[in-house]
């Protein structure tokens, strides 16, 4: 693109920030968001792209021969989904190749971004695999076979609960608290009725599906790479979810009257 009018530059800016917002919402690392925005700007004809990231919003400016356009978009956090991030990366790669048979311009970017949909695994497969993962942890920690079975049941039902709450658009804090409560109640019954000789292992392993590992890992990576606001924001997200999980566990233990 040789000459860009102010209107065209505004359209380009909105397209770039739309891609950046999608990546942020689905859990992309901050440096990847910035690099993707800059690459898109270069492909679409902008001289440079400047971007500012905070956990709740993105501010993006495109520059073209002294002419600048700035826009801001709010980020609504969604469940982690690297499929969306990978799809946007593939779009950028295609636009950079500039294949002759396709016109990879801003219209193409808008069209393809509207078509992006997160691809989820079958929900029953996820429930089964989460149950297997938590049960395996219980086994590795020395739980007996009954504790392993109880962990599988408790974590599977907890994952089903979490999915149902997410489907009904409950905020993640409530979802984590309620899910932890359900898992602890089910595992706690094994201790009350003496189903297992290692009930405490079942209690601990059944809530592992709620560990916000991705938030903590991204917070460390962002902080080390200079994105302190994003790092602290994601760290706080992880801490709040951990707190909500703890509240759910404590509430269940208090209601069941468990000790030790």
UniProtKB/TrEMBL annotation:
Domain of life, per lineage: Bacteria
Domain Threonine/serine exporter-like N-terminal residues, every copy: 16-255
Keyword terms of this UniProt record: Cell membrane, Membrane, Transmembrane, Transmembrane helix
GO molecular function terms attached to this record: transmembrane transporter activity
Transmembrane annotation, as ranges: 120-139, 170-189, 201-220, 240-258
GO terms under biological process: succinate transport
InterPro entries: ThrE-like_N (IPR010619), ThrE_Dicarb/AminoAcid_Exp (IPR050539)
PANTHER family membership: SUCCINATE TRANSPORTER SUBUNIT YJJP-RELATED, UPF0442 PROTEIN YJJB-RELATED
Protein name as catalogued: Threonine/serine exporter-like N-terminal domain-containing protein
Organism this protein belongs to: Aliarcobacter vitoriensis
């Amino acid at each position: 693109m040789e000459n860009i009018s102010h209107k065209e530059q505004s359209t380009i800016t909105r397209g770039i920030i739309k891609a950046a917002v999608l990546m942020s919402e689905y859990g992309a690392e901050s440096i990847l968001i910035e690099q993707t925005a800059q690459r898109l700007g270069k492909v679409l004809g902008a001289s440079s792209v400047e971007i500012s990231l905070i956990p709740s919003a993105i501010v993006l400016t495109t520059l073209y021969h002294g002419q600048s356009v700035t826009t801001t978009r709010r980020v609504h956090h969604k469940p982690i989904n690297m499929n969306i991030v990978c799809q946007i990366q593939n779009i950028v790669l295609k636009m950079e190749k500039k294949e002759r048979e396709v016109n990879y311009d801003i219209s193409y970017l808008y069209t393809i971004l509207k078509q992006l949909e997160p691809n989820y695994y079958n929900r029953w497969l996820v429930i089964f695999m989460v149950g297997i993962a938590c049960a395996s942890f219980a086994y590795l920690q020395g739980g007996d076979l009954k504790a392993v079975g109880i962990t599988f049941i408790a974590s599977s039902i907890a994952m089903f609960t979490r999915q149902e709450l997410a489907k009904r658009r409950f905020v993640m804090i409530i979802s984590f608290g309620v899910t932890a409560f359900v898992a602890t109640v089910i595992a706690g019954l094994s201790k009350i009725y003496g189903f297992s000789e290692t009930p405490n292992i079942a209690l601990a392993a059944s809530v592992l599906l709620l560990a916000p590992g991705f938030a903590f890992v991204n917070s460390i990576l962002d902080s080390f790479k200079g994105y302190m606001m994003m790092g602290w924001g994601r760290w706080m997200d992880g801490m709040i979810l951990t707190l909500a999980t703890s509240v759910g566990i404590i509430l269940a233990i208090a209601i069941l009257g468990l000790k030790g």
